[in-house]
Write a structure and sequence with these properties.
Layout: E1 14-19, H1 23-46, H2 50-75, E2 78-82, E3 85-93, E4 96-103, E5 107-113, H3 117-122, E6 124-131, E7 137-144, H4 146-168
Helix pairs in contact: 1-2
Length: 177
């Protein structure tokens, strides 16, 4: 399902959407398998009685809520790049969202950071947009293909600046020179 934004300006269209790398969701799956393993160990050591089953039910109520909130926090993080601006939507915690936006002419630098063996092998990292606006940085950790994403954003920013450089320049009359 394509992303539908309701607050686009006139003439604005979505160029790209950057979401988290699939490794984040694989890590949440490992957490879920850890919970299954812990439940099996608890059941084997404590025996098959009603207190053990009650403990497992309470554990899985809270643990499944933890897994859901972890998934939700990563699923709802995204960069939306339009032909006029960048919108950064970050889910900080459950029911706590931060939305920032910056026009393309205010982007000063796009940098990436790839740390570690798995980040280099699986091609994910952190993409950081440094801006001249009120929000100084937009960060996307676990961004897929960070080098391609940064080049793409830089190309869009350059194209935007090229298209809008003539409208901001003052025309000089040859008689005045």
């Amino acid at each position: 399902m394509p992303l539908q934004l309701q607050n686009l300006r006139s003439g604005e269209k979505v160029d790209s959407v950057i979401r988290r790398h699939w490794i984040v969701f694989a890590m949440i799956g490992v957490y879920a398998l850890g919970g299954v393993f812990l439940s099996a160990v608890l059941l084997a050591t404590m025996g098959n009685n009603s207190v053990t089953w009650l403990g497992l039910v309470v554990f899985w109520m809270y643990y499944s809520m933890f897994l859901y909130i972890s998934w939700l926090n990563h699923e709802l993080d995204l960069f939306v790049i339009t032909n006029n601006r960048v919108i950064c939507i970050e889910q900080k915690s459950f029911l706590n969202r931060s939305v920032g936006e910056c026009t393309l002419d205010k982007i000063q630098e796009v940098s990436i950071e790839t740390k570690g063996f798995f980040a280099n092998i699986l091609d994910y990292g952190t993409v950081t947009l440094k801006t001249a606006g009120s929000t100084s940085n937009f960060d996307m950790t676990f961004s897929p293909k960070p080098m391609e994403s940064s080049r793409y954003i830089n190309n869009i920013v350059d194209r935007y600046r090229d298209d809008h450089s003539f409208s901001s320049q003052k025309w000089v009359n040859n008689d005045d020179v």
